[in-house]
Amino acid sequence: MTELTAAAFTARLTALADPVEREKMQRYFKTGFGEYGEGDVFLGVRMGALFELAKEFLELPVAELELLLDSPLHEIRAGALSIMDKHARRKRTPGERRKELYELYLRRLDRINNWDLVDLAAPHVVGGYLYPRDRAPLYRLARSTNLWARRTSIYATAYFLRKGEVEDTLAIAEILLGDKEDLIHKAVGGWLREVGNRAPERHREFLDEHTPAMARVTLRYAIERLPEERRRHYRKLKAATE
User: Mean pLDDT, to the nearest integer, of 216-220?
Assistant: First the structure.
């Protein structure tokens, strides 16, 4: 029987470490620990293996998950968030557990400090919890000075998009259009692209109004699935305001 402790998870994950993989990951991940990733430390564990191990620890108590989030090792924190994500995805997960996971995520945003960590858990842990509730917390996150809080705000709306709702994505995208960070520009553009897949008319309306204010990378992501004629139109609209 699996021992449901942070120490047991850490020991199992550490046994999977590979020095070659560690070098690859250190080259690939350029942001993370601290505000922009200075000093993040990697074990060198493939994500597929990490996700498989997380399945064995789904019932890990919240206090033990928080211990994992305290780790300086990237994959240990990723493991905690994978457990949280997998548990949040399960239909039979009790509402109280969902609330605990959501509150843990927000309480420990200081440890969810890399784009992959946000992307892993924000849609179901945050978006899934808020879907039937007041979504005001997302708007507070969108206005935060914390980069990862802002990325969380837009990424969490992925859950709403899957349910066919686009308005929160559009509203938060509008808040983030003036952001200085490339990681926000790309996230906003990617989610605007998804709005286009689900609500083409609202996508067009948003682009018509906001293209001049978009970063170029945001616009590139947002229009990449449009016909070439429409892409050319929005590129010209952007160029005319520069």
Answer: 97
Instruction: Give the CATH number of the domain where residue 177 resides.
Output: 1.25.40
Q: What share of the chain is helix, strand, coil (3-state, %, to 5)?
A: 65, 0, 30
Same structural domain, 84 and 115: yes
Which amino acid type is present at position 141?
A: L
Banded pLDDT at 30 (limits 50, 70, 90): low
pTM of the model: 0.93
Q: Is the dihedral of CA 236, 238, 241, 242 positive or negative?
A: negative
Paired tokens of 41: 């430390």
Tokens representing 117 are: 């960590």
Which ranges of 29-164 does DSSP label H, i.e. alpha helix? 47-55, 62-69, 74-89, 95-107, 115-121, 128-130, 136-142, 147-155, 158-162
Q: Give percent above pLDDT 70 in the chain.
A: 95
- C-alpha to C-alpha distance for 154 and 168, rounded to whole angstroms: 9
Nearest to 126 by CA among 150, 99, 96: 99
